[in-house]
């Protein structure tokens, strides 16, 4: 914020906002959004009346709000766009993944799910050419040892021989490759159990939750919790033959099977290609508790939640769609990322159905960053609804309506979109509010850790 205050335009606007008579109410709105960096502005009203008598119980209008607007959180999952909303999204993802590992009885996921075979698997992209890296106890192929913050890590040793076309086409087809992998995995599990696929469905269900992550070279890979359940999901025990060892073996076989591939036809000057997973496959059992070296439920959930709020911008590209390549000049896009984006543009006319240019900011990837199978756990929608219900109950209590049955109250409303975002001064103040909220959360977290270690 200190840098922003050095800007006279921002400073003057900040003083204008802070000296306004409705500043306190503006602060309350921003606190309610969690310090959202790009709040949605609404205008309108809502009225609550008694259904039987027609008595007006409460009326609210934005007419008396700052700027005659109500500000609500944008809900963007990307930390690069809105850290506060991304924090909420990451928290929801953490609870979703952990519920599938440790159970959540309040959401009809029994704690016995801990006893089901489950592993944490990472499937990576193949090589598109040698890149600068940090091999264990060795120098990079370039002859140097790269520090962790070296921007050269992940960039090609030779920009001119690196297969940029294959890299973005792989990203573009990664979602289909994952689908083929899960289909093959069911077959591998059935084969090891001595069952047909039809028979497998009657006794066992494959469940998973996954997140996509961009490697520094700009290639997508997936981290996934994969679990074996009974036929009805987490609330039914898996068959006696199901084990972590069987699941691990089946995953390794499915990931390397020739069927687990995606073919891309030859177009123009581009040859036909067949994509499979890379050779770096990691599969580890998930433990309920363990030492620092173990893959535990908490570590896995936190790891997946962390990457659920990130995208390709961590590789040096933009976090929004690109109109023209000229846009890259003013954003400090790296040469490697520029070449990947340019490959998307050049390939787009050859593969129009793949919409490569529309997804150039994602280096061709067009799948979901975070997804799960139907019965893995609860849903993000259910978690959001719980939060909405809690806030609605708080509001009813504040209005003195908590004693009334909800079915006896008629709610009428009229809302319309009125813009989004902050002025420069508002943005600086909102960032301060977001920082204070984050600091309070961290302080509370540290206090809980201290209590736990003392116990």
What do the pLDDT scores average to?
A: 91
Beta fraction: 15-25%
Count of domains: 2
Query: How far from one another are the termini?
Result: 39 Å
By secondary-structure content and strand pairing, the structural class works out as alpha+beta
Q: Approximately how much helix is present in the residues?
A: 25-40%
- Globally, the shape reads globular
In short:
By secondary structure, the protein is α+β, with helices and mostly antiparallel strands. The protein is 37% helix and 16% strand.
Describe what you observe in this structure.
- It contains 11 helices and 11 strands.
- The chain is of the alpha+beta class and 455 residues long.
- The protein folds into 2 domains: 2-78 and 381-454, no CATH class; 83-128 and 163-378, no CATH class.
- Strands 9-4-6-5-10 form a 5-stranded antiparallel sheet, sandwiched between helices. Strands 1, 2, 3 and 11 form a 4-stranded antiparallel sheet that branches. It has a two-stranded antiparallel sheet with strand order 7-8.
- A hairpin with a 5-residue loop joins strand 5 (205-214) and strand 6.
- The longest helix has 31 residues, at 424-454.
- InterPro entries: RepSA, RepSA_streptomyces.
- This is Replication initiator protein.
